[in-house]
Specification:
Shape: elongated
Strand order of the largest sheet: 6-3-8-1-12
Structural class: alpha+beta
Number of domains: 2
Number of strands: 12
Helix content: 25-40%
CATH topology of the largest domain: Immunoglobulin-like
Number of helices: 3
Distance between the termini: 62 Å
Largest sheet: 5 strands, antiparallel
Length: about 230
């Protein structure tokens, strides 16, 4: 569509004169305003010919169709999003009682209990070191595991700190570093594990409750049992 309406002799009116400041795009009302201005300023002795007028109407029709198409597409996308959220939230409720692995690095320690740390090595490693931190980010335990093969791995943590003292119950985080015999770093993925005890909803999205931890539905890596 041209940026200037033709056929308006001596008026010098353009789209940028008619459409205010920041909005440089024509909508339906802008188009109609410009068309009416053109008609009101045309020379009665030399009116716009029918072909030119028909061309303007065709442009308006195309603009209207594109506007309706965009509105329908936006509505369809919003509807699909609500439907997907509803399906996910319904499915989440059926997973209560399931044991799961999820992407994450949290582990919950209960009083007097051991807990299992889960992770995956992308390649065989000659040395593997696990560092455990409390909720304040302070390192409480460092465990030298030694050599391990590539695949999912587990380590049972006895709940003791580096001095052999029993740690308080709570949520801890862990990280795993691994190297090959040549000193090359092996990428490691850590997991949060536990039994889903309930479901909460944050901004309409399901969050699994695993003890006092929360796990997003999209972070679930593996369902271990039913």
């Amino acid at each position: 569509m041209s940026s200037t309406i033709g056929g308006i002799s001596g008026v010098g009116m353009s789209i940028t004169d008619t459409v205010s400041g920041s909005n440089s795009k024509l909508d339906q009302m802008d188009f109609l305003k410009l068309l009416m201005i053109q008609l009101s300023y045309q020379d009665p002795l030399n009116p716009m010919d029918s072909a030119q007028f028909s061309a303007h109407l065709a442009e308006f029709s195309q603009l209207e169709q594109l506007t309706l198409m965009n509105e329908n597409l936006s509505y369809a996308m919003q509807t699909n999003l609500v439907l997907a959220q509803s399906v996910n939230n319904t499915m989440a409720a059926t997973m209560i009682g399931q044991d799961v692995l999820a992407y994450g690095n949290e582990v919950e320690l209960e009083e007097g209990e051991e807990t299992t740390l889960n992770y995956n090595l992308s390649a065989s490693a000659q040395s593997v070191t696990i560092t455990i931190k409390d909720e304040a980010g302070v390192t409480v335990r460092t465990i030298e595991v030694g050599a391990q093969s590539s695949d999912d791995q587990q380590l049972v943590w006895d709940g003791l700190d580096n001095d052999g003292d029993e740690l308080s119950p709570g949520v801890y985080t862990f990280s795993v570093s691994a190297e090959t015999s040549s000193g090359t770093t092996v990428p490691v993925t850590t997991y949060t594990a536990g039994t889903i005890s309930g479901v909460s909803y944050v901004d309409g999205m399901a969050q699994f409750l695993v003890g006092s931890m929360q796990i997003s539905l999209g972070d679930v890596y593996k369902i271990l049992s039913g």
